[in-house]
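Weekly modeling sync, notes
Attendees: AB, CL, MP (scribe)

Item 1: holo prediction request
CL wants a bound-state model with flavin mononucleotide before deciding which constructs to order. AB pointed out that an apo prediction alone won't tell us much about the pocket. Agreed to run with the ligand included and paste results into these notes for async review.

Input as submitted:
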Amino acid sequence: MLDEIKELPARYPQPRSAVMPALDLAQEELGHLTPEAMSEVAAALELDPGYVEGVATFYSLFHLEPTGKHRFYVCTNLSCALRGANEIVDHLKAAIGVMGPVQVSSDGLFSYEEVECLGACEFAPMMRLDHRYHHDLTEAKIDQVIAERKGRKEEIHLPARRRGASPPRSPGRSVAKPPGGETHVAIEPPLPGPPRKAGRGKRKDA
Amino acid sequence: MPELRGSFGDQPHHILTRWFGTPDLHKLDVYAGKPGGYGALRKALLDMAPAEITNEVKTSGLRGRGGAGFATGTKWSFINRDAPGPKYVVVNADESEPGTSKDRYILENSPHMLVEGILIAAYAVGANQAWVYIRGEYDEPRRMLSEAIEEARAKGYVGPKPFGKEYPVDIRLYRGHGAYICGEETALLESLEGKRAQPRSRPPFPAVKGAWGRPTLLNNVETLATVPWIINNGGAAYAKLGTDKSPGTRLMSVSGNVRKPGVYEVELGQTFRHVIMELAGGVTEGRNLKVFWPGGSSAPVLPASMLDTKTDMEALAAARSMGGSGGVIVMDDQHCVVRAAYRLLQFYAHESCGKCTPCRVGGDWAVRTYERMLANEGSQIDLDTLQRVSDGLQYGRCLCGLGDSAGWVIDSTLRHFREEYEDHALRHECNVGAVTASA
Ligand SMILES: Cc1cc2nc3c(=O)[nH]c(=O)nc-3n(C[C@H](O)[C@H](O)[C@H](O)COP(=O)(O)O)c2cc1C
Ligand code: SF4
Ligand code: FES
């Protein structure tokens, strides 16, 4: 991998442009970006490790924590929320047994994250999973993709660093379904608290 | 073949989508077999001087489809073609504006239309290298575009001598990694250079000092995909469509509470009533329209009473909104405007790059204020705070448009739905359902 990374800078008008493709390669190999991996990328590109980390923390597709083998990126921006994305997230969390985006399911297979608009709003609610978009999500579709991937579990290589005990199941919010089995459901107002994620501009600076 | 949801090819004014739905249109042979497919590139290279091409685009009146609506031909003419040294064409395929999915529609269905447009633009402005900055989540569109480029390379259209003309052009892809701000043109250039994507102050403009410090033409996917038609049919033919100041057609992705969400090619000047009620089939059964975002989440909202507003940029400006990215988000009367605004402010706060204070601080401030109101702890003070934050984000107080956009969400929802805000802040009640936002 490092040899491949060392070849990247020559492909750009200035070598610095190689930093994201290089981090990409590292993440593909390791599943997420460890501090050591970022230092090695920095060394291979002759950049400051702090600089590389500054880039990695700015972009949401770089993961600094372990992720499941299959990570669900569920869009909860407006067009998807208007068609039931938040209920999909609740269902997914319960189904894989995690409370939040930094947790991995106890079998190491799954994690999830709520993401901003994925540019497929006409298929809302939708998500990205295993480099593919999944459209018109329902709870049944979520169950199905989970079952398919669990079925393949025997053939796949589990991440080396697995999470310990099974996390407590999501308590699940009380969801009142209007008659007619519609996907638009009313739920209680969100609780006050800190913003759900630190904005990218407030993350560690290079 | 990608699933098509929307309109394609069944109306005389369908320019971009005229061949959509043709099996294997993403293959070069199929695209080139269509009347004019790669014919515009051949014509541009063999029969036209670069300045003539730019003039044709000027005549068409085409305006950028990325958000700002800047005149495309004029932008092309800002690049000094004869300046020595490298020049670049950079294509904005970052498409991340909430409610917008139209560039994906082009990338997945007709990537060669974009490749042809890029090659024409490169020749017109004197660039030999083009970069397509494509959002990281677009795995499938990236694969299709990449295959299209390789097919074009194999044919020699991308390469040292397209159609025998000594004018080498190369196209390369650069993958983004998840940050809305990368759609802003100068942030995109920073990202392309391997940096955190924080917008640059202008001037210098990209036409003078863009990618890697070199003169750069930066255009949106749809803008460039429109160019082959203009070269084939003439700028004057394009200018006949649409309105005087907003000629032509544009793709509108209609989403939210409509019966037929999809991407529709709309002749500018048509009303939103036509787009929402006819093309997209109207609002969900048994519901009424409450509000819509006419041009992505950044475009100030319009209430149902303004459904007859026209889609051209002038009509939208008169309605105190904008055409923006062409994403039409429709919300019905079962949803709460305050919560929708809250969800969008979470988005803008999260996506703020943190470079300027009103945006970095104002976004979080607004989010906390919404949270207080939605937890029934609001008061008049919160309404005043929202207005103040909104003012602080607008009027050029921020370095880039993200700040303004956040301000417009607050400002326009407050302006049109004051009563709903007062219900929450003063009377601690909500009469409609939720657009839920995650805590
Ligand atoms: C916050 C922000 C996000 C933007 N996102 C995009 C985008 O995703 N795609 C795009 O083409 N333009 C986007 N723009 C507009 C670009 O800055 C630029 O105006 C456009 O790409 C120029 O191309 P055009 O003239 O062909 O429209 C964005 C602007 C701002 C301020
Ligand atoms: S307005 Fe916001 S996103 Fe734009 S430069 Fe300023 S802090 Fe960054
Ligand atoms: S809002 Fe979910 S894909 Fe656009």
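Recorded for review: The first strand of chain B starts at residue 88 and ends at 93.
Action items: CL to compare against the apo run; MP to circulate these notes.
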